[in-house]
Design brief:
By secondary structure, this protein is of the alpha/beta class. It has one domain: Rossmann fold, CATH 3.40.50.300. Helix content is 30%, strand content 21%. The longest helix has 18 residues. The two termini are 36 Å apart. The structure holds adenosine-5'-triphosphate (ATP), iron/sulfur cluster (SF4) and magnesium ion (MG). The site of adenosine-5'-triphosphate has 14 residues, from β2 and α3. The site of adenosine-5'-triphosphate (ATP) has 14 residues, from β2 and α3.
Length: 320
Amino acid sequence: MTDNDTQLPLLRVVNLGRSFDVSEPFLQRLVTNASRKIVKAVDGVSFSIEPGTTFSLVGESGCGKSTVARLVAGLEKPTSGSIAIRKPGGERVRLQMVFQDPIGSLNPRWKIGRSIAEPLRQKLPQSARRARIGELLATVGLSPGDADKYPHEFSGGQRQRISIARALAADAELLLLDEPTSALDVSVQAQVLNLLKDLQQRLGLTYLFISHNLSVVRFLSDRIGVMYLGRMVEEGPSEDILDHPQHPYTRLLLETVPDLEAPKRDRAPLGGDIPSPLNPPPGCAFNPRCPLAMDLCRQKRPELKPSAAGANVACHAVAG
Ligand SMILES: Nc1ncnc2c1ncn2[C@@H]1O[C@H](COP(=O)(O)OP(=O)(O)OP(=O)(O)O)[C@@H](O)[C@H]1O
Ligand code: SF4
Ligand SMILES: [Mg+2]
């Protein structure tokens, strides 16, 4: 392995696109004279993740975050673009998704030891499996005796620990974490985020972390990508994005981020309605909500490019 090899990203996504045909059935369209409707859920998104680091995708509901994760996981096929996931030696990378609501992915009739053991079946004889399950439960802060309980006997935060244990049982190296803490109370959220950070440091895991909340990603992210209606509008090192946001949309998101220390404090709501990805405005899709919008913004779509301040930004008003 040369020094150069170690710098290759574990995941490289280039110009990724995914459209969905959400038209009414053909006969109905014939009767109502409706045209075809195509949603561009993900539209030309590019980013890379270095091994052992966290890349966070943020943006409002419907901007395409989960679709990106599903494409990376191979659960959807891209309409355009490419996804390369590889280790320096070229071997396959084991990846696992962790969802917001782990109860949906745990069989309610199975003791959780059995759910965690699933990925171990091929690898370990039954005698060794029990010990490994206990070890994994301890790794995520639960007790080995918890293996004999059912999912409903755990709190939301504990269930999320169980789904992380299951990902570790599968020897996952890349975790696709889709809003893993959004359903949890703030204090429990912080505990799960701490666990994720600790596991990353100990095991060298790589994370694609998805959240609509910028204050949640601050703790974990090395880089952040901000999405708006299927497109990346700002991408860069997390300090740049959080402390010196360039794109008007990132600034708006930061102004409305609930404060983790004082979550009840009133903040201004995000102005304007989110336009539909079915029918995005021409030019910059953010223009109807943007305080800086000018004529050019309604005519020409800004491309993501390096800004003078460092991060990559797609905005006509930001100096390159
Ligand atoms: N299978 C599908 N068929 C049709 N439309 C879809 C499908 N999957 C996603 N979409 C649409 O693509 C867009 C992006 O959806 P996606 O779930 O990726 O957003 P998201 O950023 O994860 O939102 P949320 O924060 O609500 O989870 C939405 O407009 C959604 O309705
Ligand atoms: S391109 Fe124009 S409308 Fe879009 S964010 Fe920049 S200033 Fe606002
Ligand atoms: Mg989602």
